Amino acid sequence: MTETLDAVERTALLTAALRAAESSREDRLYNDPYAARLAGEAGPELLAEIREATFPKVARRTLPSTPDYNAIRTRFFDDFLQQAAQDPDMPQIVLAPAGMDSRAYRLDWPAGIRYFEVDRPAVLAYKQERLRGTGPRVDHHSVAVDLTSPDWESKLVAAGYDPDQPSTWLLEGLLYYIPRDDAHRIIERVAAIMKPGSRIAADIVNEAALTLPNMRGLLDVFAGWGCPWLFGTDEPEALFDAHGFTVEAAQPGDPAADYGRWPDPVPDRAETGVRRVFFVHGRKD
């Protein structure tokens, strides 16, 4: 069924392959028993291309370590969602887009949580087929809709989401791939259906990561797949503040986002001309 997925949708198979590889490590940061099934045959092929670009045989690595980054990102957002779910006043979790994420199946969730996975129809159809016979551990709702469509909010509400109750949203692996105006528009629309006090998290790169010569190897892989990185910001706090959020931004390797796995120095926020990734997390005002 992978032939039904477009270029951006296929990156979810890469993420699943990375999670499967992480789960096979003795020092793994999490265990995802469904990742290999979700990655299928295409995921490991995509991962092999990333490894070849990232870890050249005859030169020093200049690219960020995608396996370590993905492991830290997954664990960081695992912890964020699980902590949010422990709040007795937090009844709703939304993953948008959901991709090949299996948190609804591999993690334990408190009773009373409504868990929504929003993604394009082709992605959710592929995922449903791959997870056939496996049940989620939470009150789970799939919402098959494109986040750029004019009516995705109404479909989410029709699936049981209540804008008048607090919610926790995760925008994982999304903002790289959409133009700046679309990124602002999606964050604005998400904010509009969140009750004040609700939580949000997302990952995003900085602007330099889109243009630095030493990032070319990785950028060229994604561009070659037909899903170039289009958006980054050096001020992720300001990006979300513009839409009514108060957030913090951690970089992999920071004390809150390390887990003993980040292999590179963490550049000070004042340093310019360096690549960065941010894990944004906070609340709606």
Plain-language structure description:
This protein is an alpha/beta fold and 285 residues long. The chain contains ten helices and seven strands. Helix 1 packs across helix 3 and helix 1 packs across helix 4. The radius of gyration is 18 Å and the shape is globular.
Describe this structure in a few short sentences:
The protein is of the alpha/beta class and 285 residues long. The protein contains ten helices and seven strands. It is globular and about 55 Å long.
Features of the shown structure:
285 residues; alpha/beta; 7-stranded mixed β-sheet; 37% helix
* Uncertain parts: none
- Helix % is 25-40%
Strand/helix succession:
HHHHEHEHEHEHEHHEE
Largest pleated sheet: 7 strands, mixed
Mean pLDDT: 96
End-to-end Cα distance, whole Å, is 42 Å
**How is the largest sheet built, in terms of strand order?**
3-2-1-4-5-7-6
Structural class: alpha/beta
Coarse morphology: globular
- The fraction of residues in strands falls at 5-15%
Topology readout:
Elements: H1 7-23, H2 35-39, H3 42-54, H4 66-85, E1 92-95, H5 103-106, E2 114-119, H6 121-130, E3 139-144, H7 152-158, E4 167-171, H8 180-192, E5 199-205, H9 216-225, H10 236-241, E6 245-250, E7 277-284
Parallel strand pairs: 1-2, 1-4, 2-3, 4-5
Antiparallel strand pairs: 5-7, 6-7
Helix pairs in contact: 1-3, 1-4
